[in-house]
Amino acid sequence: MPLAILALAISAFAVGTTEFVIMGLLSDVAADLSVSVPVAGHLVSGYALGVVAGALPLAALTTRLPRRAVLVLLMSVFVGGNLLAGVAPGYGLLLAARVLVSLAHGAFFGVASVTAADLVAPARRATAISLLFSGMTVSTILGVPLGTLVGQHFGWRATFLGVALVGFLGLVSILVLLPARPRPAAGGLRTELRAFRRRQVWVTLLVTTLVSAAIFASFTYIEPMLVTVSGFAPSAVTVILMLYGVGMSLGNLLGGHFAGKFPVGTLHTTLTALAVLLAVFAYSIHFRTPAVITLTLLGLCGTAAIPTLQHRIMQVAPTARTLASAANVAALNVGNALAAWLGGLAIDAGLGYASPNVVGALLAIAATVIAVVTHLTGPGPDTERTAPRTGTRAPTRAP
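Above: the chain's sequence. Below: its structure in token form.
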């Protein structure tokens, strides 16, 4: 794998850290800026909405620009936004800075996915994409806990300034390691939009949304689940979540490896395993050791589906890879928001803190059924493109 993918992974690490680290700093931010914790929570939801809102427009505006220049521009916005967050005197400016950073998030992963795929041979594209996303998964193990620790000891502003520094390292790495290439030879925005007429594109986006919702329906409420249902001490949750992060990192790499060789089989297997594990977790969460084992396996299987789906969207939209990849990242964040809402409905209905796992299992089952039925009822674009021609040859015209 070329070193340029390392540059992309460093940037992805910074992006992943800034997205999730705020969850561990909400109380500190609320107290410092004299707002309630629910109001501070808008820093999380506002970021997710910004990713959805910015992914497609920014990716569309940059379809004909050289990809290295686009990545440098997006990381510059990222660094500037985090610097602004680190010095924001009030809540309003902090929220604006978070939204500014989030606008670059979706477009970054869309462009970076295509860039990583084009750096390697076609057979290794899924692996390259998984290595890019490994920066995001490693941020859950290292970046978020470290950022939370820094914020607790030196103030939440120090965390955002530190993330800006890591983002700057990613930006410099892109400039140094990513080779300069001419702008894409695709037909521009009109050509990319035309690819969205294909049914497989929308089916893949729907599956991505459902998979993300299935994962986060459980993960959003994992802390009260482990403390209230499993009986763990709050201090043990951090260690357990690190195990979950290890499972995510392994799943991401394994998913990318097998998706390059068996794309359809890998997708169907990971979706089925995710549905089964979420159903099991609704029961195993009541017992400490089984709960930890199931949660680690959930991290592995759930994250294995992400590079598989990112690779899939590029297969079904070969003429719109940048825009489709950005749309897939947006679909992930739509799923995140949907998950928190649906899981909260189950808890508010009096079904208990374990009930979001059942919600997640039902969403994963829906994703599996849609993916399998779509595959059985209609071949994908690669099959249509590479299938050998059969039948008799047309007669030649008589002289």
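Residues 379-399 have pLDDT under 50 and may be disordered.
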